[in-house]
Amino acid sequence: MKLEGKRILVTGGAGFIGSHLVDLLVAHNSVIVADNLLPERRKTINEKAEYVSVSLLDRGSISSAMKNVDLVIHLAANPLASVTASPEMIGNITMTHNILEIMKENGVSNIAFASSAIIYGNAPVPTKETYGPLKPHSLYAASKLACEALISSYCHSFGMKSWLFRFANVGGPRLRHGPAHDFIAKLRKNPSELEVLGDGTQLRCYLDVNDCVAGVIRVIESADEPVNIVNLGAGDVISVKRIAEIVIEEMRVKAKIRFTAGEPKGWKGDVRIFQPDIALAKSFGWKPRRNSEETVREMVRSLVKEGA
Fold it and tell me: Whole-prediction pTM value?
């Protein structure tokens, strides 16, 4: 699907990944940002995009914005959701179902969805899209897998087409969650000690947000199956301990790292190693510019500069 001259609805378009994606899309498309806007996100909306205030839990709230849309890019998720928060996870599934129903009612047949490679659980790494059966470890991961299943069923039942992106951790400017953000906040309160959940040996793949949104566009323009499932990641991993060290280095403090447990998992639902295989995405002509450590360092620098 060529992304030029299209009318594109981006849910969560004022959020972290969404705002960066909208910045790219507005150059050649008519973009609608659908977001239940948090005050701090108002400045992230590209002035060339149209903004509509919506609650995706209310079908009527978004129905009018779906008129004459060529593509929905569904990035929105409940900002209060956590690894174990059941009501918020159900809400994320409901939002996806509502979007699919409104698409069907309005004759919109194309949807891209922000899933997560966390749905693989403790799988062999790097993990290919064909790995299964999938055994999610957290409610968050389960909700992403449930949304994938809903989208796939609508594609096969109602002639829609989808691109399901299983993202690695995504980092960059405007990020307001995750280990690096939390470490910065902790060090601002106590610059002499940094608490790290687990033993710090957890391994994470970090994808630069600009690489991420470029990958989304390239895959949508290249993959042409009714349901296209594609991993996006940096191709390598970084330890949580190393992320903590980079935060300490970039904040220029002399903090001692204190680990909370003598086991690799930091919390219930955590995954020991998180690394999606990106060979399929690369076959479409995309590749990440930065590796995981470069992404983390640039992200930390931007967050410290932004006062996160």
Answer: 0.93
